[in-house]
Amino acid sequence: MLLHDRRNTGASDIVIEGDEGEEEIWTDDLYELLGRLGARPAFVGGASSGARTSIITYLRHRDAVRALFLMRLTGGAFAAGRLPEMYYGQFIRAAREGGMAAVCATEQYRERIAANPANRERLMRMDPQRYIEVMSRWLEIFTRGPVAPMYGVTEAQLRSIVVPTVVIPGNDKTHSMECGRAIRRLIPGSRLFELPLQGQDVPLVPFTEWAPHEEAIARACAALVLGS
Question: Is 98 exposed, middle or buried (0-12, 13-18, 19+ CB in 10 A)?
Answer without folding.
Answer: middle
